[in-house]
């Protein structure tokens, strides 16, 4: 699938102000500083569509981008950023959970994982919650250019091993590097297959 047009539509923390749920939506989420904005810009081939910040936790709203006038790419706030106040974190968790659990047009939630790190407790808990809630999701391992092939293979193997302790089968797993522009075709192809 090719992205010909991508434009910002709305940013908010109120589900009722989101676009009417008539077009398919593909949402992206992950811990702060996982490279979500860079990935969105790489996928859409637009350097400034999603705002990139040196300060983690910058995305604090649900951001809708209309792709090819046919589906929405949704940028969700990162979770687990310690410098946000507990009140802010609770607020984020509330409207993010509401979006994920009730948005009938959500076709897939892409959970971004930093490929350099061992499985983080917060990621494991979030993935487990998605499974319990029966939310369709896929994992995207980011920053794969930061590791050599052996390190990457070992890290992914450990992650899969940890997941299989509680899962009968693994979710779809994809790989990306925004810097090296890796994974774009695979991710867009996966979205295209769901849209068919």
Which features does this protein show?
globular, Rossmann fold, alpha/beta, 196 residues, 5 helices
| Overall 3D form | globular
CATH topology: Rossmann fold
Return the CATH architecture.
3-Layer(aba) Sandwich
What is the H/E string? EEHEEHEHEHEH
Widest beta sheet: strand line-up? 1-3-4-2-5-6-7
CATH H-tier superfamily? P-loop containing nucleotide triphosphate hydrolases
* Top-tier CATH class: Alpha Beta
Computed Rg: 16 Å
Chain-averaged pLDDT = 90
Percent in strands:
15-25%
The domain count comes to: 1
Oligomer: single chain
Tally the helices: 5
Low-confidence stretches: none
Number of strands: 7
Which class do the helix and strand fractions yield? alpha/beta
Task: Outline the secondary-structure elements.
Elements (H helix, E strand, L loop, with lengths): L5 E7 L12 E6 L5 H9 L17 E6 L3 E5 L10 H17 L3 E9 L6 H12 L4 E6 L6 H15 L8 E4 L8 H12 L1
Could you explain how this protein is built, in words?
- The protein has one domain: 3-Layer(aba) Sandwich (Rossmann fold), CATH 3.40.50.
- The mean pLDDT is 90.
- It is α/β, with parallel strands linked by helices and 196 residues long.
- Strand 5, helix 3 and strand 6 form a beta-alpha-beta unit.
- The protein has a seven-stranded mixed beta sheet with strand order 1-3-4-2-5-6-7, with helices on both faces.
- It is 33% helix and 22% strand.
- The longest helix has 17 residues, at 86-102.
């Amino acid at each position: 699938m090719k992205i010909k047009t991508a434009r910002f539509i709305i940013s908010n923390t109120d589900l009722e102000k989101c676009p009417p749920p008539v077009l398919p939506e593909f949402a992206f989420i992950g811990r702060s500083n996982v490279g979500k904005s860079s990935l969105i810009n790489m996928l859409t081939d637009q350097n400034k569509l999603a705002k990139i910040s040196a300060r983690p936790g910058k995305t604090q709203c649900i951001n809708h981008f209309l792709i090819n006038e046919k589906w929405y790419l949704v940028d969700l706030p990162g979770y687990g950023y310690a410098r946000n106040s507990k009140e802010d974190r609770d607020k984020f968790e509330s409207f993010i959970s509401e979006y994920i659990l009730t948005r009938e047009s959500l076709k897939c939630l892409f959970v971004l994982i930093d490929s350099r790190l061992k499985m983080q407790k917060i990621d494991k808990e979030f993935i487990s919650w998605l499974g319990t809630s029966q939310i369709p999701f896929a994992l995207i391992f980011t920053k794969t250019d930061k590791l050599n092939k052996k390190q990457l293979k070992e890290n992914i193997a450990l992650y899969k091993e940890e997941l299989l302790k509680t899962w009968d089968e693994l979710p779809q797993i994809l790989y990306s590097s925004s810097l090296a522009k890796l994974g774009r075709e695979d991710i867009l192809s996966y979205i295209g297959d769901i849209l068919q």
